[in-house]
Specification:
single chain, mainly beta, six-stranded antiparallel β-barrel, 1 helix
Length: 100
């Protein structure tokens, strides 16, 4: 299994990020019918629903190794579990494990 890192962004449009902690399990859900981005991947919390999106812009991504939603899109199924790694001032770094 290979870890792919990505940034969770847009939390300020939902529930904020105070409740998000390292090692928290979340779910990625592809959103092909998204009117703004055909490669949109929303991030879902089991109890709250959508809490943000996988960053798809270099301005919202944390670190050089962080994948954008566009780069991640074809590497995952329609839904997949992910894990929060770090909560930083500039964003929340997460990872998903995929087959190599």
């Amino acid at each position: 299994m290979k870890k792919i890192y990505f940034t969770l962004t847009g939390t300020n449009h939902y529930y904020g990020k105070d409740f998000i902690n390292p090692d928290m399990k979340l779910t990625l859900v592809k959103e092909p019918d998204n009117a703004f981005d055909k490669e949109a991947i929303k991030v879902v919390h089991e109890a709250l629903g959508t809490i943000g999106y996988v960053a798809n812009s270099p301005y919202t991504m944390v670190g050089e190794k962080s994948y954008s939603a566009g780069r991640l899109y074809d590497k995952i199924g329609d839904t997949v579990e992910c894990t929060v790694l770090f909560k930083l001032a500039q964003g929340i770094l997460c990872f998903v494990e995929v087959e190599e």
